[in-house]
Amino acid sequence: MITAIIMASGLSTRMGENKLLLSYQDKPIIQHVFENIKKCNFYEVIVVSKYNEIKKISKDYNFKYLHNENSEIGQSESIKLGILNSKKCDGYMFFVGDQPLLDYKYIENMITVFNEDKDYIIIPYNNKKNGNPVIFPFSKRSELLNLENDEKGKKIISETSNIKYIEVSEDMLFDIDTKEDYKKLEV
Predict the structure, then answer these.
(1) Separation between Cα atoms, residue 113 and residue 87, nearest integer Å
(2) pTM of this prediction?
(3) What is the pLDDT of residues 149-163, one digit of tens each?
């Protein structure tokens, strides 16, 4: 049983506006992420954000919404909020909200690999580039809860050898950080 935690509290400073709500194929970018997650068999899905618009979309999908009052601290706050408000599970799959080309088939494949041995961190990669989403086993819970400021899961990944890399399509790892990224999406 894996809990999906969608981290959607970012400030979008490089974009200059909330990138998760930008339109792609007549829907907000984050809605594409939600649609693919909804197709998978997660124990529960938690959305961590500070935006009312994302709260509304979360309710449409019956996802548990958590308001992040301390988003300015950094990504560690979203990670902690998600974990502390989840049911006991085998692992946590962390998603970012700016990957509209996410494909549920790859997500399901990552879940299958995780279920074969629940002691490994599962990371998607393509052409020597790692990305999101990432699955952390329950055994890494305390380490995740000890992250501070804008520390991310990368800190824990760098300190362990229990990692399995799963090859995915290049599109699967595409995320939007800048206006140039968004223009690539429109092409």
Answers:
(1) 22
(2) 0.92
(3) 777 788 888 888 899
